[in-house]
């Protein structure tokens, strides 16, 4: 019998985006409580796109020790926060402006400097918090999205940054999805996280998810790494991988995969 809290890979399928938001709220609160109990802080990095809206339930969650949270970005578009494309602006509007998190615990990427410099500055921020000698930072949780092309954070199919092994944070100026200039966490950082959680909703993600969960029958929820789909490369090496889907996004998944979905009740941690 599946024990989701112990499984390395977990699938959650909710009937609606509202029920998925509730589940995410419960799970993230439980994970934060566990991290704070163990290490005194909760380090989480968030993505942009459709994700921030799915996290809006956290704004009204009870008992959250916001002063122990440190919020980072998985990636950011190189635009000012006044631009609607800014991921941090969306995250602030939907969540951070509504909760008592200290301003110094919100780690935005620099604006108004060249992308290369913004990436170097963000890596320096991570080194200051996680320890400069660490081979790689270990986030408690990374909340990722995925585009229909399989990109995650700002790691795109076929892009040279998929091979980056030394830097924690990198920049690109040729993103196939606008805007072209972006900053992103690299795969070594993503793979080092304790929990990597993907959130995907809507019909537009169904075909991609069919490809992500393409392991031969009998191999359960295994996500087979496929260089053409960067989201499949974002697997934690010794942590947990969780895919949170609504039923529209999950509609093309094989039945044997759907049968392994975790319960929506309670929390994973
Ligand atoms: O451009 C981006 O896209 C991905 C996926 O966005 P979604 O709207 O399809 O969920 C997002 O995760 C990433 O942070 C963002 O920069």
Question: Counting H and I runs of at least 4 residues, what is the number of helices?
Answer: 9
Through-space gap between termini = 17 Å
- From N to C, what is the helix and strand string? EHEHEEHHEEEHEHHEHH
| CATH architecture annotation of the domain at 44-57 and 66-234 | 3-Layer(aba) Sandwich
Q: Provide mean pLDDT, rounded.
A: 95
Shape: globular
Structural class: alpha/beta
Which cofactors or ions or other ligands sit in this model? ligand LXAUTJHC
Strand order of the largest sheet: 1-9-8-5-2-3
**CATH level-3 fold name of the domain at 44-57 and 66-234:** Rossmann fold
What is the beta-strand fraction? Answer: 15-25%
Stretches where pLDDT is under 50 for at least 5 consecutive residues are none
CATH secondary-structure class of the domain at 44-57 and 66-234: Alpha Beta
Helix content: 25-40%
Largest sheet: 6 strands, parallel
How many beta-strand segments?
9
Nearest-angstrom radius of gyration?
17 Å
